[in-house]
Amino acid sequence: MILQVFFVGLIFSFVGSIPPGTLNILVLQLGLENKVKTALRFALAVAIIEYPYAWIAVVFENWITSSPIVLQNFQLLGASVMTLIGILSLWTARKPSSFSVAFQESGFRRGLLLSILNPQAIPFWIAVTAYLKIEGWIDLSTNWRIHSYVFGTSVGVMILLTLLAVMSQKVSTTFQKNPLIRMLPGLILLTLGIVGLVKYFFF
Question: How far is CA 123 from CA 4, 44, 58, 119, in A?
């Protein structure tokens, strides 16, 4: 059962990390810039932060779901972070400063900071865990099973981000030669952030 919950967590984490989001788009950008080592350090930091966020979602599921204002604030924070990072990405793509260059190069610290500021994993794992429990796919009745499941979520996101970094490196030459393509990740993040803010305030 411990291995089962590990692989269930891994698979759902891998699949759940595929849709465009702040962190996987930034890993994609690093790979396109031919900075695979930086991207892998970034991915490791994301995987480390995924662990406590998934654990919070599992352990405090009932308390969080009974407080809609908490879930709404997660949505607002995530949309705000996407918008801010999108603007910064576009700005640094056009006029890179010494600070922005240093921040871009520090993959692990950058990954830690942005992961902490973007706790979208919590509402995602609340929903997924509740579904898996109802379907009988997982049993998290012991601490060993909980930590095995949560560890699987970290491994899943690490695998997905590593694949993104390695695969995007193969087209990095085209990316580096075209300044418009270099701005694409920032534009995507900005668009996703604005859509999230519009949904939060108007729907």
Answer: 22, 21, 10, 8
Report the alpha-carbon distance of residue 165 to residue 43 in Å, rounded. Answer: 9
Cβ proximity of 141 and 1 under 8 Å: no
DSSP state of 19: S
Q: Tokens 């085209």 belong to which residue?
A: 174
**Residue 4 CB: number of other CB atoms within 10 A?**
15
Residues of the chain with pLDDT under 70: 62, 64-68, 70-72, 74-75, 77-78, 82, 89, 91-105, 171-182, 184-185, 203
CA distance 49 to 153: 11
Which residues, 6+ apart, have CB-to-CB distance to 49 below 8 Å?
111, 112, 115, 116, 121
Specify burial of residue 167 (Cβ count, 10 A radius: 0-12, 13-18, 19+).
exposed
- Whether the CA torsion 203, 186, 21, 79 is positive or negative: it is negative
